Amino acid sequence: MTKSATLEVKDGKVRQAINGFLKDLFTKKVVDAMLVPVAHPSGKNVVQSLISDPANIDKADVYAPVMPVNSAKIVQQMTRLTPTDRKTAVVIRPCEMRAAVELIKLKQIQPDNLLFISVDCPGAYSVKSYPKFTADKKTSDDFVKTGFKWAEDTNLRAGCQICEYPYPLTADITIGMYGLEPGKAILQANTTQGEAALKTLGFAIDTDSELAKKREAALAKLAADLKERRKKFFAEVKKELGGIDKLMQVFASCIKCQNCRQACPICYCRECVFISPTFELESDKYLRQAEKKGSIRMPADTLLFHLTRMNHMGNSCVGCGACEEACPNDIPLVKLFQLIGSEAQELFGYVPGRNAEEPLPASTFREKEFEWIGEK
Fold first, then answer.
1. Calpha distance 167→180 (Å, rounded)
2. What pLDDT score does 366 carry?
3. How many other CB atoms are found less than 10 A from the CB of residue 126?
4. Which residues lie below 8 Å from residue 78, measured CB to CB, with a gap of 6+?
5. Residue 155: pLDDT band by 50, 70, 90 thresholds?
6. Contact 68/88 with Cβ under 8 angstroms?
7. Order of strands, edge to edge, in the sheet holding 114-119?
């Protein structure tokens, strides 16, 4: 049974209602700190901020349609060495939540003392496009009212347009709005920690909420629609990018800046092989390669870099699109990594970020796993 409570939203002011809920977490001593998106003073961005003073919650803007960084990387930075010694709420989008779950499995995030809160996500614009959104005097409340229409808004980030799970698969508390009429929102407790938090705030917990049933029914239909849309999308991508020649054309503009690696929440290695002595060659080795082939592209190994990344993080790719957003040359990385990642994940029957207790495919040995392809 889904355990939920109704979040009162007055006059369509979703941001105000959510910020009131978040502030109560402070005042009722549920948390001591909070990582939450906060509007930048310039009005041109919304950045994750670590807040210790509840007065600053008024600046929070959870539904602002911009995601400059996948917040799982921030949580990793905060907790990789030691868990937080203060109860800290982490307010993040579904793709960020799924990335956080993968990093927990990879021992890169220590979840002790963290309260994860995630939201139904209507998508986001790129950091470059967001200033236009605010310049048009639009607010996150306006966006939520017209949101959840990914197929109709081609200005959304590439990752958002083909997102498979724009709703949380797991979190201590879910702020749910999809499938509900404007002005309605629910808080779903998915763990005992989440339930305890809502009870401390004084919410009446309902195990048979009509709002929850309505949302779940809407999500079931949404999941089917998104699955069909992604199927058609990937069929087009295979025609567009299939084959080594087309793949090389896609990466023709790659300058091997490695921004995609830096932005990816799943690329967690402290020392990447591509910035290690393995790829630091003496000049004569480059020259011998050039003599052997007639010429070699410089910087070298750009295609190898991307293929290695696909192999390394494909099973855990959450499709957040941070890689493509970070690319200075607009390489369609989301198309490629989601195509490869989704096929690899389907092969293993694995959904990254679905469950913190579900082992990573590469860490699990199953004797008869690939007998269907003739391996004995």
1. 14
2. 67
3. 18
4. 35, 50, 84
5. confident
6. no
7. 3-8, 184-189, 173-176, 114-119, 88-92, 33-39, 46-51
